[in-house]
Design a protein that fits this description.
- The chain has about 240 residues and is an alpha+beta fold.
- The chain has 7 helices and 14 strands.
- The strands form 2 sheets. The chain has a 12-stranded mixed sheet with strand order 1-2-3-4-5-14-6-13-12-11-10-7, with helices on both faces.
- The longest helix has 15 residues, at about 85-100.
- The protein is globular.
């Protein structure tokens, strides 16, 4: 596809992106509501063929954990199965490498086998399974202050060092205790461990809120099961 070009998205691209993502799924899509924010933050990239926007992806660089979070990969329906998704993903991975980032992560619904195949073909492997939705409140003990460090340490042992959040972005990253402590003010201990909106075990939260949980549990509005993938980057990636 010699005519394919990829670049950072600009404000003039938003209308086209909204046009082909409005009805991605039966329920619609969240991309139209966030694309302007992504463009303003300078994190969105678009694929273009003959002045037409045919693909979009957002990449958030979490420099504290040397992780690139990829989200919202969408290809125009008229241009699918042409390798655009792969080209777009490889482009942003190369950009991550140029920025000194070591890992890339993304999340895919478990039913979306085409996207899961693409991730595997690009060298991503599964690291977490998440159950998502709006959780009902549960009985918990609330831990605050320096005492949360021990709870965070135990939680990260159970997740092999991964932390997720729903704040602004659904986002997962490699993490250490100090990073997690900058993200949350309190933790919840109940049937599982709640690190803010991330529950290790079933949903564990004292209030009704949107959570990502590593086990099934009591959801008032269940979104579905998602798989988190990771890829270790390197200089070879930049030459791919």
């Amino acid at each position: 596809m010699n005519e394919l070009t990829i670049r950072k998205a600009s404000s003039s691209d938003a209308e086209q992106v909204i046009g082909f993502t409005r009805n991605t799924f039966q329920w619609g899509d969240y991309i139209p509501s966030v694309i302007n924010e992504w463009i303003n933050e300078g994190t969105a990239y678009v694929a273009i063929i003959k002045d037409r926007i045919v693909g979009v992806v957002n990449m958030v660089l979490i420099r504290e954990t040397s992780t690139a979070w990829l989200e919202g990969i969408r290809i125009h329906p008229s241009y699918r199965r042409m390798g655009i998704g792969k080209a777009l993903t490889e482009y942003v991975l190369n950009e991550a490498v140029k920025n000194g980032i070591r890992y890339a992560m993304l999340m895919i619904a478990d039913w979306n086998e085409p996207s899961r195949r693409l991730a595997r073909s690009l060298g991503f492997h599964e690291v977490l399974t998440l159950f998502t939705g709006v959780a009902r409140p549960s009985q918990v003990s609330i831990v605050r202050g320096e005492a949360i460090r021990e709870v965070i340490r135990e939680a990260l042992k159970r997740t092999n060092g991964y932390f997720c959040t729903t704040r602004r972005h659904w986002l997962c990253t490699r993490a250490i205790e100090d990073f997690v402590m900058t993200m949350i003010d309190e933790v919840y201990v109940g049937r599982g461990i709640g690190l803010g909106e991330f529950s290790i075990g079933p949903p564990t939260t004292p209030i009704k809120t949107e959570v990502l949980a590593t086990e099934e549990g009591d959801f008032e509005n269940y979104y579905g099961k998602f798989i988190v993938y990771e890829k270790e980057l390197g200089q070879a990636q930049a030459k791919a």
